Amino acid sequence: MNTSVWIVDFGSQYTQLITRRSREIGFSSEIITYNTLQKRWSEGIRPKALVLSGGPQSIFKDPRDYSFIFNEEKLPILGICYGMQIMGHVLGGKVEKGTSGEYGLSKIQFEDSVENFGLSSSFNSWMSHFDHVSKVPSDFKIMLKSQNGFIAGICHDSRPVWGLQFHPEVEHTEHGREILIAFFKKVAGLKSDWGDSEMLEEALGVVKKEKDAQILCAFSGGVDSLVAATLCEQINTENLHCFFVDHGLLRPQDISHIHVLQEKTKLNIQIVDAKKQFFSKLKGVDEPEAKRKVIGHEFISVFEQKVHEYENDHGIKFTHLLQGTLYPDVIESVSPHGEEGISSTIKSHHNVGGLPERMKLKLLEPLRYLFKDEVRKLGEALGLEYNWVHRHPFPGPGIGVRVLGELTPERVERVGKSDQILFEELKRANLYQATWQALTVYLPVKTVGVKGDERAYEEVICLRMVNSSDGMTATFSNMPYEFLSTVSRRITNEVAGITRVVYDITDKPPGTIEWE
Ligand code: XMP
């Protein structure tokens, strides 16, 4: 992808947000590491604007050379937090170790002598720093100061270069969006180059390059595989074949969703019924990692076998594997400890991990430059129904990670039924979008209760609902008591073997979203 704005990652927890915000305001952008920046620089490649992110380092311990970045007179540069400290240090200002840091909200104010680009003269900003620029480099002015008297923003007298000690990309910063617009549009003079049509073009471009391919898709019916397949189907209608493996660890809503997609879309979706194989392999397995391994391994084996049969029956040979990989899975990023590497979401692609090498398939990943919210927008632009592209996430191993202990069809059914009740009530109370993910977990714990005047000694269902933006961190959802009470009453009444319902109020960290 050719992008206008490069965001150099120094390990800030907000680097992805800078990229998302710049795209939201209309500029194509990508995250790169310092090493990639250096490499591109040596090859003579330049962006239209450069952003230096925040990061946990101290300029006093950072041995890297940054001077080459500032040799380009006309290049717009925005330094955020650590990025501003790099700017101050390299260009001859002074950075000092703080005696106390500024964390959280801080009121900041434009200096009288500088242009405020039509922005409000004072506003709340989100700060997270210890070191600070105490003297601006020559040819720079102080643009903003914090209530504590620290320099909060600097600008060059004549070049399109700004440093901001606070984080305009974070929601808590008032007018953060306007500040970024002011920099990119007014200071850097960039023209908008990212929106729905560019996104579509970018994603379609990947598929168009392979229009004669025979494409195989491990289809889950989730947002990513659905949007990827729909895109692909636009170009390669005849040669796209989707396989949905029913491993018996699905909820009733997942099966009915696939039937709806078979009926309402043009996708060729083959349903592979492998329930028996999975349950027989899972007999006696109760350790979470062992269960995941069996499910992952069995998935690949069933998938491979069915695909071979299909190839033989239809006289075709697959050349490509379509995957709904998203940008957060491929971003070049720096860990909080400063090491560079390609980040990976360990759990998300386990279903088809290993397949491309074994089956000698080329990967086709039309969504690899997009964030989840962009994929949802793209799905809507492709005419997919709102409910389909705003579905909650569901893990590949399905209910397999929601039944603690051994997996049996009976336990899976109990989770399936309680899940059905939970979702019916979420929809009835108009709360589906009030939570990012909702699920039920089966706990093989016997507890005493009373059912119809008789003592019951039965098991427990746990409800889990969380709010999150990407699943990496999460907070438990604050759901109305009345809603929780209705769900609890229905589950204890309608699901056999359950006398008790509990609500999980653990955030992530320390708890993960799934229980296993
Ligand atoms: P955890 O439990 O790690 O989950 O906090 C974070 C998000 O990832 C989903 N998840 C998975 N998705 N395969 C998947 O496709 C998996 O093995 C897997 N494990 C967890 C989980 O549902 C949540 O949205």
Give the low-pLDDT segments. Answer: 342-350
Structural shape? globular
Biggest sheet strand order reads 2-1-3-4-11-10-9-6-7
Bound molecules: xanthosine-5'-monophosphate
- Main beta-sheet annotation: 9 strands, mixed
Average residue pLDDT: 93
Helix content: 25-40%
Separation of termini? 37 Å
The proportion of residues in beta strands is 15-25%
Q: Pairing-aware structural class of the strands and helices?
A: alpha/beta
Radius of gyration from the alpha-carbon trace, in angstroms: 26 Å
Number of helices: 15
Count of β-strands: 22
Task: Summarize the structure in short.
Helices cover 33% and strands 24% of the residues. The chain is built from 15 helices and 22 strands.
Would you spell out the secondary-structure blueprint of this structure?
Layout: E1 5-8, H1 15-24, E2 29-32, H2 34-42, E3 49-52, E4 77-80, H3 82-90, E5 94-96, E6 102-110, E7 122-129, E8 132-135, E9 140-146, E10 151-156, E11 161-164, H4 176-187, H5 196-208, E12 215-218, H6 223-235, E13 240-246, H7 252-264, E14 269-273, H8 275-282, H9 288-314, E15 320-322, H10 327-330, E16 332-334, E17 340-342, H11 355-359, E18 362-364, H12 372-381, H13 386-389, H14 409-428, E19 437-451, E20 454-467, E21 475-476, H15 481-494, E22 498-503
Parallel strand pairs: 1-2, 1-3, 3-4, 4-11, 12-13, 12-15, 13-14, 15-18, 20-22
Antiparallel strand pairs: 5-8, 6-7, 6-9, 9-10, 10-11, 16-17, 19-20, 20-21
The chain binds xanthosine-5'-monophosphate.
Xanthosine-5'-monophosphate (XMP) binds at residues 347-348, 350, 393, 395-397, 437, 471, 508, 512-514.
